[in-house]
Amino acid sequence: MSSSKTAKLGHWTAYMPILALVALGVAAFLPNAAALTLCAAALAGAVFSAVHHAETVAHKVGEPFGTLVLAVAVTIIEVALIVSVMLSGGPDKAGLARDTVFAAIMIVSTGIVGLCLLFGGVRHHTQGFHVEGASAALAVLCALSVLTLVLPNYTNSVVGPGLTASQLAFEGVISLVLYMVFVFVQTVSHRDYFLAKAPSEEVHVPPPSRRTAVLSLGLLVVALVAVVGLAKKLSPAVEQAVATAGAPKAVVGIVIAALVLLPEGLAALRAARANKLQTSLNLALGSALASIGLTIPTVAAVSLVLDQQIELGLAPKETVLLAITLLVSVLTLGTGRTTVLQGAVHLVLFAAFLFLAIVP
User: Is the peptide bond before 236 cis (omega within 30 degrees of 0)?
Assistant: First the structure.
């Protein structure tokens, strides 16, 4: 990215997050159609602004800290949204955390990763990355996803997809501990596993100043808050459209999760096109791990403190989709080299996930 392009983008991205929050407030006083149009436009601006500020922060702190900033920031705000809906939704929202985490895993592992591998393969034919880093992330993802989303269906203390208080506490603790160990490995003990392997084709740009990086970090948080708020504002219209189309309610969660994950998805895709597949995988797999490692402990704590029932076990169809996604991810990312073929395989799984969500 040239310095002139950075300056041009920085001009409008500096105030777009604030404008997105203002648009969110103004939309409350507008007619429904006008409010939806304003929120949709503000959401697009907030997403692109978040991507720019995330890249600025990443350029300053370096990898893999930069990708970790965006993944954790998005997940923390997503968790806040889940908890707020849980507290206001009552018993019918018992499966919200499960559905959101599952949708995030599938969107990231099949959709975002698939697009990155496909577009990167089309442009660069073959791309390389550190297989040690990808294998470490996939090992943690397999363990966390199965322990939190599949195992609850097979415990004997509670009938169905629920857990006892002690089992739920155990799930929350091991999820957080395993995620924190992964972050330690990624950023401290084996940081070299997550550094870019192939050189970037972009023109070298000096890192931004500390003041610019701090400002971008603050604007990134504001932009992500705006993305979540606007997504929540648009959700009733999405629910109505889904109901009108006769699609299952689970589609609503997929749409909202996709909106929240847009900043990470765009940042990962841009990195893949710039021949930085390692950065793309750090973003994608890191966000999937953060979704489990931060969401499950938080909702477990809320459930235990407020004595609110939650359901974590997936239905059989979703369990099969999760299993084949994890298996294929281990195979396609197990050599350290990717082509368009791996991208096509992941995107076929993503298409199956979307199709079976609409036509169960």
Answer: no
Q: Which domain covers residue 122, as residue numbers?
A: 3-358
Rounded to whole angstroms, the Cα distance separating 44 from 266 reads: 11
**Longest Cα separation, the chain:** 62
The total of structural domains in the chain comes to 1
Q: How far is CA 44 from the centre of its chain?
A: 17
Which pair of tokens denotes residue 77? 């705000």
Alpha carbons 160 and 76: distance in angstroms, whole number: 29
Query: For residue 128, what is the DSSP state?
Result: E
Helix (H, G, I), strand (E, B) or coil at 7: helix
Rounded distance between C-alpha atoms, residue 223 and residue 221, angstroms: 5
d(CA 169, CA 27): 40
Is the separation of the CB atoms in 296 and 97 below 8 Å?
A: yes
Strand, coil or helix: 42: helix
User: How far is 351 from 239, CA to CA, in rounded Å?
Assistant: 21
Is residue 153 within 8 A of residue 289, CB to CB? The reply is: no
**Residue 303 clears pLDDT 90, i.e. is over it:** no
- Residue 220 sits in a domain whose CATH number is 1.20.1420.30
How far, in Å, CA of 24 to CA of 43, rounded?
Answer: 9
Give the C-alpha separation, 360 to 358, whole Å. Answer: 6
Say how many CA atoms lie within 13 Å of 293 toward its Cβ.
Answer: 22
Mean pLDDT of the chain: 83
Q: 207 by DSSP, 3-state: which?
A: coil
- Per-residue model confidence (pLDDT) at position 173: 94
Q: What is the pLDDT of residues 210-249, one digit of tens each?
A: 888 888 888 888 888 887 788 777 777 777 777 787 777 7
**Which amino acid would we find at residue 169?**
A
Q: Count other C-beta atoms under 10 Å from residue 201's C-beta.
A: 11
